[in-house]
Design a protein that fits this description.
Elements lengths: L6 H4 L15 E3 L12 E3 L3 E4 L2 E4 L8 H4 L13 H16 L10 E3 L5 E3 H4 L24 E3 L7 H6 L4 E9 L11 E11 L1 H5 L27 H23 L4 E9 L2 E11 L2 E11 L1 H6 L6 E8 H9 L12 H4 L22 E8 L7 H12 L3 E11 L6 E9 L8 H19 L2 E2 L2
Length: about 450
């Protein structure tokens, strides 16, 4: 489900805004194919080219060359990568637990869908209102007003249901602009599941089930159900959903895992829940789920069925299960990291052994905010675009309001640390100066350097 993963790292991530780029072309030479079809990513003065398709730039365009360089990496499909291990464990569990009459798994898996979607797919198809904050330009990567990099894998949910699928798992890379720290990254990976039931399928194991029905006319919406659903159908569906996810988490964490459910709100499910697990002495949210909004199901051509859906962040689970302390490590090509996950079996126990801890370097940056138009995500994205993975964390350390002019300034502390070697102060100074210069030029702020 769309905003389920706190892993934005897990959800519900960053602005060197391309509309300010000069006329030269920014190229990403690596192939961006997600289905064997090679493509180049290029940012031109008036367009963005991705997967051999040209998207005209407009006032919503904010995708960066740095982000485009990540498109097509598909870490979740790279054998023996920790994200691949988590995905395979989840997939294997569903394959073994849900088998049809012929002995074949009833859940299909879709992990190779391109991340470019329409705004309608990403939001409207999921009943997300036009004024919902999740649509903000500051939180997403837009190619233009009509196309974007998906912010959640649920952007494909409607098309998969419309194709006739009743049970499926969907995994992929998703893109959001967000803060900079050890658990947030502009690209992360989600996995979700959907299961639809006909009247016969849901009530098949219930005594006198032939007398029960999924839908009712003239019903009303309550905290427990949607207006079109019968209460008995919702309760049975909710039981099936929670049982499926409880078994999944016990499969991943162990049979003795403590679980609790928290009521919540999502635009695309009702009722909706978050699952929390008690792990290493603390409660941790691991996924969101709920009964799919019937309007969503109906618009996808399956109005005679009702269903449940869930979504989780693969980074969140991998960081917890494997003890990986920094989300940047998932993008490392360091053999010392990668070789730790080359296992003979996907269930072979593995705990990340830290690489040498290289010392951090700290630099501050201060600037006066413009009268309007500034968002922190713009600043974070600019820092990422220039500093890349050398920036470990960005923290707002001070806010100052001038007593006479009432102008406001922010002071941010940037922590620089290379994951594989010691940075020099000279290297960081050059990088930090480039960020300071770009801040004034791209964000329209006045520096207090």
């Amino acid at each position: 489900m769309p905003l389920y993963s706190s892993s934005r790292t897990v959800v519900p991530l960053f602005k060197h805004v391309v509309r300010h780029c000069p006329a030269r072309v920014f190229s990403v030479s690596r192939s961006l194919s997600t289905d064997g079809f090679a493509a180049q990513a290029q940012i031109h003065e008036n367009s963005v080219q991705l997967f051999n398709h040209v998207y005209p730039r407009d006032d919503m365009t904010n995708v960066t060359a740095k982000i485009l360089s990540k498109v097509g990496c598909q870490l979740h499909n790279r054998p023996h990568h920790p994200l691949w291990l988590i995905k395979e464990r989840i997939k294997d569990h569903f394959y073994r637990s849900y088998v049809g009459r012929t002995g074949n798994p009833i859940f299909s898996v879709h992990d190779n869908l391109r991340p470019v979607v329409t705004v309608e797919q990403n939001f409207d198809s999921l009943l997300i209102p036009a004024d919902h904050p999740s649509r903000k330009k500051g939180d997403n990567y837009y190619l233009n007003r009509t196309h974007m990099l998906r912010a959640h894998t649920s952007a494909h949910q409607k098309e998969l249901v419309r194709s006739g699928l009743d049970c499926f798992l969907l995994a992929g890379d998703v893109y959001r602009r967000d803060e900079v720290d050890s658990s947030h990254y502009p690209v992360f990976h989600q996995m979700e599941g959907v299961r639809l039931f006909s009247n016969h399928e849901l009530f098949a194991g219930v005594e006198n089930g032939e007398d029960l029905c999924l839908f009712e006319r003239g019903g009303r919406r309550t905290s427990q159900k949607q207006e079109t659903h019968t209460l008995e159908a919702v309760k049975l569906l909710e039981f099936d959903l929670k049982r499926a996810l409880t078994r999944l988490m016990q499969h991943l964490f162990g049979e003795d895992l403590e679980i609790r459910w928290v009521d919540c709100y999502f635009p695309f499910t009702h009722p909706s829940f978050e699952m929390e697990v008690f792990f290493q002495g603390d409660w941790m949210e691991v996924l969101g789920c709920g009964v799919m909004e019937q309007e969503l199901v109906r618009s996808a051509g399956a109005g005679n069925k009702m269903g449940w859906a869930f979504g989780l962040g693969l980074e969140r689970l991998a960081m917890v299960l494997f003890g990986i302390p920094d989300i940047r490590l998932f993008w490392s090509e360091d053999e010392r990291f990668l070789k730790q996950f080359r296992l003979s079996d996907i269930y072979q126990p593995v705990t990340f052994q830290p690489l040498s801890k290289y010392p951090p370097l700290f630099n501050d940056i201060s600037f006066w905010l413009p009268a309007e138009g500034y968002t922190e995500n713009d600043f974070y994205d600019l820092v990422r675009s220039i500093g890349g993975d050398l920036v470990e964390k960005v923290t707002l350390v001070d806010t100052f309001t001038h007593p006479k002019t009432k102008k406001v300034s922010h002071c941010y502390r940037l922590v620089y640390r290379h994951m594989e070697r010691t940075l020099t102060q000279e290297e960081v100074s050059i990088l930090h100066t480039a960020i300071q210069t770009a801040v004034e030029k791209e964000l329209g702020v006045q520096g207090r350097f």
